[in-house]
């Protein structure tokens, strides 16, 4: 897994890279079934769209197929569920978040020949449709609907405040390693929220393979070790963060944590 965090991820489709990541975090990820299901959906789409000769009409038909007949949709009831970060579970449940739904949509759509690209807009992942000699259009993969730049600007203001301004880079096509890095952070956050600390620790260990000295990632690893009662290791990670980021508001809180842990017996796991 570790050697994949580079140009190799750009040689894969995003959904394939996500499956590699999923399996590294949770070895029980059903990669073989997920790959088979993706190919099955591609073949089904090819058969159903065979008679549609106009490219744009064919894409509209694919859009209906994905969100209506196959019933992929955003998981409004449990948006932060870690299942929404795992491609095999999203394929099984037909529910996900923008980046996981977008990755599946991109995989199938690109196999069908549509000019699709991924965009990491500040508020969420988007799919860009770039028809020849036309301005790009943007699809919200959570809903399966087009969104205008005016709507995107409103999303940005809602997220960052009234002074937020649209920037060209917000709508640029993004490379897979960038998406995978953010995906990893999302998975870790969800797993921490669910108290699945062993899997969350794998997320942190993976992140540290390509940013080895990131004090914030090391701080998070310390928190996970603390939850696993590995106090000596947690204290070392917290101390590293304190030394590297002494002005961070969290440093004083962690100093108290290090002091408290020094009085506890170390438990090895």
TrEMBL record:
It holds the Pfam family TPR_9. Transmembrane segments: none annotated. SUPFAM superfamilies: TPR-like. Residues 34-184 form the Protein SirB1 N-terminal domain. Gene3D superfamilies: Tetratricopeptide repeat domain (1.25.40.10). InterPro entries: SirB1_N (IPR032698), TPR-like_helical_dom_sf (IPR011990). Belongs to the UPF0162 family. This is Tetratricopeptide repeat protein. It comes from Vibrio agarilyticus.
């Amino acid at each position: 897994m570790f050697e994949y965090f580079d140009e190799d991820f750009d040689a894969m489709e995003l959904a394939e890279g996500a499956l590699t990541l999923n399996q590294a975090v949770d070895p029980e990820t059903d990669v073989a079934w997920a790959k088979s299901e993706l190919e099955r959906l591609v073949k089904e789409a090819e058969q159903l769209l065979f008679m549609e000769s106009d490219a744009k009409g064919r894409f509209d038909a694919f859009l209906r197929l994905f969100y209506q007949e196959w019933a992929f949709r955003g998981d409004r009831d449990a948006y932060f569920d870690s299942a929404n970060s795992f491609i095999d579970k999203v394929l099984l449940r037909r529910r996900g978040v923008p980046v996981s739904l977008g990755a599946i949509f991109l995989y199938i759509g690109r196999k069908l020949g549509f000019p699709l690209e991924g965009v990491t807009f500040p508020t969420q992942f988007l799919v860009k449709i770039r028809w020849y000699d036309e301005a790009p259009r943007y699809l919200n993969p959570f809903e399966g609907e087009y969104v205008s730049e005016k709507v995107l600007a409103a999303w940005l203001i809602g997220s960052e405040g009234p002074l937020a301004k649209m920037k060209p880079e917000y709508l640029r096509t993004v490379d897979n390693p960038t998406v995978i890095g953010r995906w990893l952070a999302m998975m870790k956050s969800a797993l921490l929220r669910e108290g699945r600390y062993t899997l969350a620790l794998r997320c942190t260990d993976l992140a540290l393979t390509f940013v080895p000295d990131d004090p914030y990632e090391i701080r998070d690893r310390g928190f996970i070790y603390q939850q696993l009662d590995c106090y000596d290791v947690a204290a070392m990670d917290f101390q590293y963060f304190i030394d590297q980021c002494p002005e961070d508001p969290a440093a004083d809180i962690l100093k108290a944590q290090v002091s408290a842990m020094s009085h506890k017996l170390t438990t090895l796991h």
